[in-house]
Amino acid sequence: MEILQKGLALVFLFIIPATFGATNTITTSQMIRDGETMVSSDGVFELGFFKTGKLTNQYVGLWYRNIKVRRVVWVANREAPLTGAGGVLKVIEPGLLVLLNDTNGAAVWSSKSSRSVQNPIAQLLDSGNLVVRDANDERPENFLWQSFDHPTDTSIPGMKIGMNYVTGIETYLTSWKSNDDPALGDFSTHVDPTGYPQVLLKNGTEIWSRVGPWNGFGFSGGPNETGEATYKIHLVMNEKEVYVFQEIIDKSVTIALVDESGYQQRWTWVDGAQNWVKFTYLPIDSCDQYKLCGAYGKCSTNTPFCRCLDRFVPKDQEGWARSDRSNGCVRRNNLSCQGDIFLKYPGIKLPDSRNSRYIEILALEDCKAECLKDCSCMACTQLDRSKGTGCLLWLGDLIDMKDQPENGDDIYIRMSSSEAENVAGSEGKKKYVTVAVSLTSVLVIILIGTGLFLYIRKRLSYQNLRMKGQHFGSHEQNSELPLFDLSTILEATDRFSINNKLGEGGFGPVYKGMLEGGQEIAVKRLSKDSMQGLDEFKNEIIFIAKLQHRNLVRLIGGCINGEEKMLIYEYMPNKSLDMILFDQTKSMLLDWKKRFSVINGIARGLLYLHQDSQLRVIHRDLKPSNVLLDSDMNPKISDFGMARSFRENETEAKTRRVVGTYGYMSPEYAIDGMFSTKSDVFSFGVLVIEIVSGMRNRGFSHDYDNLNLIGHAWTLYKEGRSQELVDPCLAEPFYISEMLRIIHVGLLCVQKRPEDRPSMFTVVFMLSNEVVLPDAKQPGFFTEREVTIAQSSTSTNTANSANEITITMIEAR
Fold first, then answer.
1. Domain of residue 338, CATH code
2. I want to staple 683 with a disulfide (CB 3.0 to 4.6 A). Which of 120, 158, 622, 635 is the partner?
3. Which residue among the candidates 384, 578, 612, 621 is catalytic per the annotation?
4. Can 621 be counted among the known catalytic residues?
5. Which of 150, 172, 189 is the last residue of a domain?
């Protein structure tokens, strides 16, 4: 009997497929089921089944095995999830890797192959490349299929992103559809080989942002890749292929990805912090919006955003005055083709190179001579700065340039010979003296003119700005927003018909309108009884005109006529967040995915204001009524009448004029007038708790305590009952862990001490990653209590009103 048992055990050992334990290879007699994995021979990469936030959807993916915070870097069946059943991954003849439904055996996903072999295997290489090959042939050129040819949203070291001219295969990154749905999203990153290679970030088929071309060190206009000691970026270009890949120069883990919001990011795993840290991202700022300033226009983070290059003028003067830069600029003196010269324009992001020609070995002067031979050649540069050689010629107008004085490139633009007298160094000492005298004279005239302008401006009423073609704001602010005639606004709003009224805030009523061309607008009309006045009106213009971000509302223009002062915005079909969130019926439209998306959008908008914008802005009045929702429920932060900008070396400031809304102001601001970016973080934390719970902070009441919503949330958190805070209409139990994490983040933001609160950069990181969060400390304004400063507010009734009108409090001396 014992011999028989041993014999059966041996039979079982050899007959049953070897599916248990980690292996880097499977054959046609083996398979991978849920719970089993393939592991590369060096133990770095692991492939197996995983689930997203939708627990019914199952995918096959690849991740770094020994990193605790898992990031899936490749997905096989991103468009074909397994739903409601287990899966089996196996290799079949004649050489296909297939994912089967474990219940009915139906194929869910399959690799492809143009040829067949008799003994195919699937192998996970140490590079993280999953390949299907002949068991007896390890040559890469003979692989039947490889995952590196089909990347998802992430590039790992050694992966090529570009075009193979032999196979016709383009490898590029495509974002996930959402944070928990790996299906194809809207955004993609390409190495475009048209002309000279550059990196294009696309939204669908449209170019959204661009970096490049390659200058020998990195891509022109991109982050300073050479500053990182963990990796190097390489461009390979030959007759067979063109691609970019990253090389790791130490043992760190660095990846590049494009996220569902369209940002190209580079992350590195930091062992000390036990977390992923974001080192670079694109777009860097609003100037990275593709061809924002038109041909021969140059974008700058200083206002106005768009300027014509030196010795160029706007092609459409009227359009330029309306802030429409799409037609770009033209040379002030036309080219003659014969006898043209080149002028050097230093420190810029090189223009779009899709219509260009490259000569690998050519000195700069020879490069200029080559350009002059072709009348369609508009500019050239010595491209490869690392070698001091290489010639790139632009054949056509120059578009998508950006001012980068620190790490930009030099470009030599073809100009009329009549510009020769203006070239530095082309004339003798007498010319220098003449220019110096001229500049001094001009400077004196400018100073005198500025003084007169400031003197006259103080005596002019805003009624004098009614003339068509004038713009908002003081000249030095360069807001350059068009002013609409009152008659145009009256016609657009049907004379401010009550049927077109959208709502009312501290500024005054807001009306829907439609301009003659069919554009829908929202008109904010300053009320005579408003507690906000001319200062807030000007403040709104100055800030909103200089800020451009997908999560900030766009100001179109305005109207000033006597006592009438109006701001005209893009129309938001879903109005403000409070009108949906706190409405028992409409709140059903905001499922958890939409609420989470709104929270993320607001966080990104604040991060832009605090860190990425040119002004470093503190909003000071963040609340649900100041968050507008577009047709897709994307949030847009609005109302910058109370905003304040910081200089680079400023971290906080104090004011005697406390502005904001009760329930959203941080303790240090409401009581002492101290404000900083952490004041906005506090307001954001209140918003987060309100969005998750569906309840207002002010006016909240509970049967068992006298706490406000924030205090109630913290009490539940301490008792481990945070799930009781979740809005009952969010009947999605498989999201509960994510909801609890977001509540935790919100409580970290409303902690009493500003130094305990995270920055918005950290908040965005915590929202996007399942990291270990620190314990939240007691929040500010933990209990409902009477605040004596309320008695000195402009209007006690307003301060306690349900519509959360912005208030202003004057601090006693």
1. 3.50.4.10
2. 622
3. 621
4. yes
5. 150
